[in-house]
Design goal:
Radius of gyration: 38 Å
Order of helices and strands: HHHHHEEHEEHHEEEHEEHEHEH
Structural class: alpha+beta
Distance between the termini: 48 Å
Helix content: 40-55%
Largest sheet: 9 strands, mixed
Number of strands: 11
Number of helices: 12
Strand content: 15-25%
Amino acid sequence: HVEVNRNENPFLFSGTKVADGYAQMLVTSVGMNTTWGEMMSTISRDNSEQTPLQARLNKLTSSIGKVGLAVAFLVLVVLLIRYFTGNTQDENGNREYVTGQTTGDDIMNSVVGIIAAAVTIVVVAIPEGLPLAVTLTLAYSMKRMMADQAMVRKLSACETMGSATTICTDKTGTLTMNLMKVTKFWVGQDSLAENAYSSASKYVLDLIQDGVALNTTGSVYRPSSGSEYEFSGSPTEKAILSWAVSQLTMDMEEIKKGCEVIRVEAFNSQKKRSGVLTKKSVDDTFHVHWKGAAEMVLAMCSSFYDGSGIEKDLDGDERMRFEQIIQGMAASSLRCIAFAHKQVSEEAIKEREDGKKIQEDSLTLLGLVGIKDPCRPGVKSAVQA
């Protein structure tokens, strides 16, 4: 556990993720009283800002309007010059304006008609309804998208998505169902079927159970003897715990009673592994257990157990075979997790007291598991589309 430094800001923001370590947290604010809630309320306010398309349409409308005004003014000037120079004729073929002969009422009527023609050009040239038409079209598109369970808060989102050529999305829980299950189990270089675990070394299986039970942030709970087990933690942790309980008959409480956790190396997204240093009550021996991404844990190992429980050196050829196994599971869309172990002496632990770190080298590889997260229905066709 990490000690709290009361001199620093102890608050965590709702919606953020813990990048390293774990702790107990007390909720002090919920809903709109959190920083995340305040941010969402600010976003949901209508600030009447123009979308990029609306701004471009308004600019286009303004440009067209200016051109229309220029044309209308030019037409007005030309028609007035033609009228007062006697170059226009009425329906009988007579000149409309004759100096000294045309009455004031006729001049006024002709000038009003010329001005009306110029005003008509101005009215027709300015497309005032263009932005409104585009807005109505986008609003209709938003309504159509609601039928597909897609809620669009801003019109600009439709415009942005219309220009998108590549979509980057999260895989776990978005394209998949986030219901992980262990489907592959390797001890050494032997793949074991679900009904063939008994063929593996009991010593190795016991070490794997210790690593699962002690090196985890999840928990196992059974309300009563006849009820189903309940698992908590991350989806990966729950998948491993469920597999260990159902397939390896792991008793998490018994294992924890017989061991004392001395030191913890929490999982983080950079190291992609977690480790614990434990002490067994039976013989007072110290054990290091590591669990994490298979390629990361494999790099920490110098030996491995085969299916019979015999420890073998992890030379270049053997390491390459394990890498091929890991790559094969990755090609099958499996998340590969490895378990490693090492028994250490008390003297070796004291030598590391200054660094407060758990041994990360010369480990023995216990086994590999492949975790499957099934795709959501319709994902394949959606990606192809």
